[in-house]
Amino acid sequence: MKAFVMKEIGRVGFADKPVPRPGPGDAVVRTTRALICTSDSHTVSGGIGPRENLTLGHEAVGIVHEVGSEVRIFRPGDRVLVGAVTPDWGDPASQNGHPSQSGAPLGGFKFANSKDGVFAEYFHVNEADANMAKIPDGVSDEAAVYCADMLSTGFMGAEKGNIPIGGTVAVLAQGPVGLMATAGARLRGAGLVIGVESVPRRQKLARTYGADVIVDFTKEDVIGRIMELTDNQGVDTAIEALGADATFQTAIKITKPGGTVSNTGYFGEGEFVRIPRVEWGVGMAEKTIATGLCPGGRLRLDRLLRVVAAGRVDPTHLTTHQFAFDDMERAFEVLDKKLDDVVKPLIVF
Amino acid sequence: MKAFVMKEIGRVGFADKPVPRPGPGDAVVRTTRALICTSDSHTVSGGIGPRENLTLGHEAVGIVHEVGSEVRIFRPGDRVLVGAVTPDWGDPASQNGHPSQSGAPLGGFKFANSKDGVFAEYFHVNEADANMAKIPDGVSDEAAVYCADMLSTGFMGAEKGNIPIGGTVAVLAQGPVGLMATAGARLRGAGLVIGVESVPRRQKLARTYGADVIVDFTKEDVIGRIMELTDNQGVDTAIEALGADATFQTAIKITKPGGTVSNTGYFGEGEFVRIPRVEWGVGMAEKTIATGLCPGGRLRLDRLLRVVAAGRVDPTHLTTHQFAFDDMERAFEVLDKKLDDVVKPLIVF
Amino acid sequence: MKAFVMKEIGRVGFADKPVPRPGPGDAVVRTTRALICTSDSHTVSGGIGPRENLTLGHEAVGIVHEVGSEVRIFRPGDRVLVGAVTPDWGDPASQNGHPSQSGAPLGGFKFANSKDGVFAEYFHVNEADANMAKIPDGVSDEAAVYCADMLSTGFMGAEKGNIPIGGTVAVLAQGPVGLMATAGARLRGAGLVIGVESVPRRQKLARTYGADVIVDFTKEDVIGRIMELTDNQGVDTAIEALGADATFQTAIKITKPGGTVSNTGYFGEGEFVRIPRVEWGVGMAEKTIATGLCPGGRLRLDRLLRVVAAGRVDPTHLTTHQFAFDDMERAFEVLDKKLDDVVKPLIVF
Amino acid sequence: MKAFVMKEIGRVGFADKPVPRPGPGDAVVRTTRALICTSDSHTVSGGIGPRENLTLGHEAVGIVHEVGSEVRIFRPGDRVLVGAVTPDWGDPASQNGHPSQSGAPLGGFKFANSKDGVFAEYFHVNEADANMAKIPDGVSDEAAVYCADMLSTGFMGAEKGNIPIGGTVAVLAQGPVGLMATAGARLRGAGLVIGVESVPRRQKLARTYGADVIVDFTKEDVIGRIMELTDNQGVDTAIEALGADATFQTAIKITKPGGTVSNTGYFGEGEFVRIPRVEWGVGMAEKTIATGLCPGGRLRLDRLLRVVAAGRVDPTHLTTHQFAFDDMERAFEVLDKKLDDVVKPLIVF
Asked: pLDDT digits over A177-207, tens only?
């Protein structure tokens, strides 16, 4: 079968690989739709170290092709969503309430990391009964595929942010995860959602997904503006959706004492992420810093699909580009180089 | 001044009383709008025991008339919302995170209970800085007054219900609190909100406030229907918004293992509220039963007003009747006897 | 092999059965020590319905005899503790944080329920890597076997009770689970632990495990005494460790507003468990009712073994009787009929 | 009256001041015992900016001298403990569950900060009913005074650390707060408590208060040793009790994915506190960072006194020195310069 791989650090392309086979609890899925993620770019640029012919991608939906002998919920032909994170559910980290950390730190993130990813005609799913969900009839493949990572991670940012009904929230950066964090803040009942973003297309999407106010850091003093919008109190919750030291510092500064900084960003650079000491209340202002990695699991996926099926959030506004799988190299370049005002490129198999 | 009082058990009417004076931390408010609550009826029928010439009512907004020497936030002339529950914030119960229980069980509920209520030309507010909120310019008195109890109690039902994003929720009874619990479930991100109600006007309001499905217990088997709607799993959260033994039992039965029964109802009758033993998993199915009394406090009120100001929820659809304060006796009769398909009567001063 | 079974409702005895074989992720364990539980009695008396030749027992330790092809952590010869509850870790209930409810309400409780139990020379363990733990060298088989259910369930009562450091706790009934709830309350930092019990041997054990005060319901008014001990406030946490309607009612009554009733008891009788309406604050006093079923899993077992290894709690004081497996019929009779002041009978294989 | 003050940055001494008078809800206490804290040193060295003749000290017990007209719980002559932090309980931060942040970040910390402290013959207590507690007969003044800050802050480190029963905990630095965090970890049921400390006297105290293992950073690789002690998993909870960038980094590194870093330390230096990026799981390992400021309030104080009265923790082992109030200058010097292996100097009035 055809697979789109990282041939080595800095180089991608197609490779021919055998169709995978399932172990007793596993499934193999024939891919129908996939999304490219900026973390695919990080991987190719060496973010997780050298790899040779590793199939890329972790966001996909498809049709079940084959299941192992112990799989009870799924059968060939089922239209399924697969989580970007596919935990080992019996692992102590999972038993501890942190399945995305099963096996190792970030160990639930297997696709295009500890095993081949989903940018292939077929891909393998471990613990299939626990890590896939059937897609309801009213939900399109395109809408469903956003639940694999974008909705799950973005909403997690809101959930871990401990937002009270009527609370104030700032979402720092309105990329795809930030936009879904914005939608997530609205889903949790925030009374004021501030989106920080400078790119007009993303500002517009932020409004679509529920931002009440946009703060453009190229034109305004972000901290001053947010303090003004919150009667000088700071926000209940700041969601970091970029993964940059400067943004993280801003998040600490704009959060009220007793509030929460919720991180969804991948910090790819530097030895340290720095907490501004004084604004952190010299370690005593009760500003909690929470982090997470995309939650997976059938229960989670079913809930996200229910949100989409009920029309609460329509993620397909994120699709700015569409490519056939054969045009994967071009698609990858568009996202990698942030060409043409891209948000998310959808890949059609 | 004129006050609408419970003269004795079973009898209401007007009385003349002196305008109250504030202690050092208190305020006196000139009433502009108020709402009648079914609990006013409970009180008159003897629910809290005998009272003589007790001013009724706990839901009101108004204009600050006078403040005590230690009040710092408010001044005469401020347009304010006052919580139905006005806790003693220094009490150990408040320090324990349960301000509505300050002083005694349910002790935060002072109006028309341990002191005169709000159905008067002026009323007294203890710990004014902590128990009132300024009404933003864009919010009408009518909208604001619903925040005193209806939004606070209804949303609490959703909040204590531990609803996950995309979770399933049933709200049992769509009276004013149940309707706000429905709105609250939507605010917390529920993926499926089931409203149980038989009265057409309330069914329609339930849809307005976000119910996805209405189950009419006069026409359907509630438990069977809800199990069907949840793939036989039961709901994540059942909100009891009636205060009846039978409804409470249904709530236990329709909740999935590991789910939450969240009570907002006032149980006014019988020696016991009964848990169905088997469906409660013989005490081991991890169905948590949570309860609460309307949260008060300036922080809470500010957040509720923000929800209203931002247009997330418009509570004024609940107003089915409007009366001048002079017509209070008729207004009380309409609610007490549930005449004319009443939901909430608004009183204009 | 020899197995001690429920032949039919009301009748027990030995049966000959084949040694079980493991599936790919399973293990078979050769039993070395086991404990009899009152729930074995409930089962025999028909508590879970009719069964034919069902092997009884769910508390055991042993030596790994055989493992399936996918088991990675354990090998034949390992000395292991097996949880009384052995969840399906990939199930949605487990993903929801309620593994004891996996598959069905109380579905994690498989031994002597949905499959053969541990009162046999060998027994089968599903998802072995997730449901067993190696016993550290310094921990005896006898101490370890108490971690299967007694420590896990008793401590859970304390954990779900939300005990603050210095808080007040009452544990209603000092049977083996109640005694471990008493120990658990101390482990969580309770400042006052009140044990309610009338049997002298159990009163003495309660003091050993950390009760500060014993209240004997045959000699004192339990509610009055507990209110007196708590300055008329009620306790922060009441742990019900009997499973009786009357005890549950007492638990509600002695809990302060904002406190928690934590249930560990199995309610075996009656259509209802009854909440006293007025003392429950007419549904508004914020007295949360939490329940649970013995937590399982390797992480949990490892933590319990650490508590025992570190000498924090010595569960072997619970052993009042010891029998060889061949004397199982007598052992069962002793516990079933509560003869000879029995607390826990240890079975030696 | 005589008061021990910070005359200016870097200079302390006695001053004569009038005895304070209470407002309506306040009290004035005649000091009997006090403790000096390292934060008094920080203050004198300019940590909170310049002050002129500010009375120092925040840890004290005494006898009620005078109460305001609205004080209901206390009377002159009562022997009382006063919290180091005395919140404004009606403030929105308090209503939000963060009373130590009332009024401003760290705003509950009033003594020797926004008002005169307790190193005087008399001192003033705001919201007396809410911020003091009667000392039980069986508790000495010396034991009680440790509850003002040391027990409250140290235990908070354990409480915010989310320690499971049987969990693993490292407490970084065994100064007085670290020692009480060690005691707190034991009170929460930790199965392994690792104390990191190099000073022999403090190592010995750490064992007294419950550390199972001492790691001496001058002789061992702390991270390597802790990973070894935890089967290479890291601890569930790392408590930072020093307030140093290097220690904080260690805390992040030794915490397992899904674990908690709980900070009690005051960070007094540098622009940033730095998170090691990779060991923080590039922002995705679910290592929560929690912080807090000494909890105050009568409920808290009563609970701490109960812990002491019940003999769970004896804080008086911390007293290494004792001085009369007249020798305050010498006492301050001893702590300030860490002379004579000091842990805590007790001041007798």
From this structure: 999 999 999 999 999 999 999 999 999 999 9
Same domain, C139 and C10: yes
Chain D contact set for B96 (CB, 8 A): 299
The CA radius of gyration of chain D, in Å to the nearest whole number, is 20
Q: Are residues D92 and D217 in the same domain?
A: no
Which residues on C lie below 8 Å from A70 (Cβ)? 23-24
Rounded to two decimals, the ipTM of the complex is 0.97
- Chain C: touching chains (3 or more CB pairs < 8 Å): A, B, D
CATH number of residue C254's parent domain: 3.40.50.720
How far is it, in rounded angstroms, from Cα B230 to Cα B168?
7
- Are residues A287 and A298 located together in one domain of the fold? no
Give the pLDDT score at B326: 98
User: How many CB atoms lie under 10 A from the CB of residue D270?
Assistant: 12
Backbone angles phi and psi of B85, in degrees to 5? -105, 125
Do residues C197 and C173 touch, judged by C-beta distance below 8 A?
A: yes
Percent of chain D clearing pLDDT 70 (strictly above):
100
Measured in degrees and rounded to the nearest 5, phi and psi for residue C177 equal -70, -45
Closest-CA residue to C306 (of A86, B293, D230, A45): D230
| Least confident segment among A36-50, C192-206, C335-349 | A36-50
Give the residues across from C265 on adjacent strands. Answer: none
Q: pLDDT tens across D134-178, in order?
A: 999 999 999 999 999 999 999 999 999 999 999 999 999 999 999
Chain D: closest CA distance from residue B95 (Å):
7
Are residues A174 and A247 both part of a single domain? yes
Q: Return the DSSP state at D135.
A: P
Same domain, B145 and B230: no
Q: Where in the sequence is the domain holding C164, given as residue range(s)?
A: 156-291
Strand partners, B285: none
Q: How far, in Å, CA of C298 to CA of C130, rounded?
A: 5
Query: According to the 3-state scheme, what is the secondary structure of chain A?
Result: CEEEEEEECCEEEEEECCCCCCCCCCEEEEEEEEECCHHHHHHHCCCCCCCCCEECCCEEEEEEEEECCCCCCCCCCCEEEECCCCCCCCCHHHHCCCHHHCCCCCCCCCECCCECCCCECEEEECCHHHHEEECCCCCCHHHHHCCCCHHHHHHHHHHCCCCCCCCEEEEECCCHHHHHHHHHHHHCCCCEEEEECCCHHHHHHHHHCCCCEEECCCCCCHHHHHHHHCCCCCEEEEEECCCCHHHHHHHHHHEEEEEEEEECCCCCCCCEEEEECCCCHHHCCCCEEEECCCCCCHHHHHHHHHHHHCCCCCHHHHEEEEEEHHHHHHHHHHHHCCHHHCCEEEEEC
How many structural domains are present in chain D?
A: 2
Interface test with C, best of B95, B237, B286 (most C CBs within 10 A): B286
Q: Of D291, D314, D338, which marks where a domain is finished?
A: D291
| A188 and A272, same domain (yes or no) | yes
Would the CA dihedral through C4, C5, C6, C10 be positive or negative? negative
CB–CB contact D299 B92 (8 Å): yes
The answer to whether residues B136 and B198 belong to one domain is no
A240 to chain D: which residues are within 8 Å by CB?
A: 283
| ∠ Cα C138 C322 C1 (to 5°) | 90
> Identity (one letter) of the amino acid at D243?
G
- CATH code assigned at B84: 3.90.180.10
B276 & B189 share domain:
yes
Lowest-confidence region among A192-201, B13-22, B310-319, D45-54: D45-54
- Beta strand B344-348 with B27-35: parallel, antiparallel or unpaired? antiparallel
Structure tokens at A19: 């169709």
Q: Which of C272, C291, C310 is the last residue in one of the domains?
A: C291
Of the partner residues C168, C189, C303, the one whose CB lies closest to the CB of residue D164: C303
* Cβ–Cβ under 8 Å, residues B321 and B345: yes
